[in-house]
Amino acid sequence: MSVSAKRGLLLAAAAAALLAGAQALAEEGKTYGLGTPATPEQIAAWDIDIRPDGAGLPPGSGSAADGEELYANQCAFCHGDFGEGIGRYPVLMGGFESLTQDRPEKTVGSYWPYASTVWDYIYRAMPFGNAQSLSVDETYALTAYVLWLNDIVEYEQVLDQDNLAEVEMPNADGFFLMSEPEFPPHEPCMTDCRDSVEILGKARILDVTPDDGGQAPID
Length: 219
Description:
mainly alpha, Cytochrome Bc1 Complex, Chain D, domain 2, two-stranded antiparallel ribbon
């Protein structure tokens, strides 16, 4: 037997022994003595997810009027003064009725199905490089401002934990739960499935490679 094969057998045996020992300790209600139980405060710091129906939204409020200056100071550097996006940073507004086009513009207004998701993402991940630095009220204000940029809420409309989930997003009906699995219920055909094959479309030609072989070498 080769050295590598022997080494593999030894590693497998060691892993099996560790697993057996862990299982035995677990059955006896024992642990390895590593770590400490999470405190309620630690759990609360991680438990910040917001559901589509608004469950989990904390008490607070804000309007687009409250969030305009905050957006200019915290968000416009990347997303533009009007949510148009700077450079390769995401566009936040517009793109309506573009989802069926060859190059859809997926923005908060055109694509996102739930207003509560906007709040969740801003509070969890924004601003870029300083995530989770915004207060609850600031997050409500910025959410309202982004929604206002997309003509979804009024400028003075106050959003809070009770009404945010009631905001109707333009693409709310574009998302739905699958009632059946995506794969066919029957055994898939693997050979001789069709009498003939017809090419209906081809990938877009980018023409990024020069036809003449490129530039001549530099002396």
